[in-house]
Amino acid sequence: xxxxxxxxxxxxxxxxxxxxxxxxxxxxxxxxxxxxxxxxxxxxxxxxxxxxxxxxxxxxxxxxxxxxxxxxxxxxxxxxxxxxxxxxxxxxxxxxxxxxxxxxxxxxxxxxxxxxxxxxxxxxxxxxxxxxxxxxxxxxxxxxxxxxxxxxxxxxxxxxxxxxxxxxxxxxxxxxxxxxxxxxxxxx
Length: 188
Known about the structure:
Strand content: 15-25%
Shape: globular
Protein name: Nicotinamidase-related amidase
Order of helices and strands: EHHEEHEHEHEH
Oligomer: single chain
Distance between the termini: 17 Å
Largest sheet: 6 strands, parallel
Helix content: 25-40%
Keywords: Hydrolase
CATH superfamily: Isochorismatase-like
Radius of gyration: 15 Å
GO molecular function: hydrolase activity
Pfam families: Isochorismatase (PF00857)
Domain Isochorismatase-like: 10-176
CATH architecture: 3-Layer(aba) Sandwich
Number of strands: 6
Number of domains: 1
């Protein structure tokens, strides 16, 4: 369902836009994903709405067939500077795909009366989707800015955007979401 509204108490959740992650080859231009995510962060801040900046510092325990994060240098975990981190932003450090598991994210959002989250970042089929699924399960309205995310695989990205996200919430572009924040109808 295309994005229809932004609740008065909505938070932006930016997933894994950190130096090490954005350096990994992606299906879509990462610079545009970062630009759109930064524009949303600026818009949320301008409206006095929470901005949550999520970074990943390791992986969850358990066996997998895929590659795992080993020892990573500190700069790998640094947020990209384009996000222009502000003192009022909330930092979440995670060790799983999703931003809720083992973190204070739900407590932080509920403590501010947040009813909706807009989720952006990398990777669409991992960190973004896991965070969106958990938010949906916790009862938040979920909106996904599809032009502010990418994945290593175009096929995985497209699967999340076309098959999974419509079952979790609404999707829209940075421009549509910003227009709704500004009191427009989203048809910018």
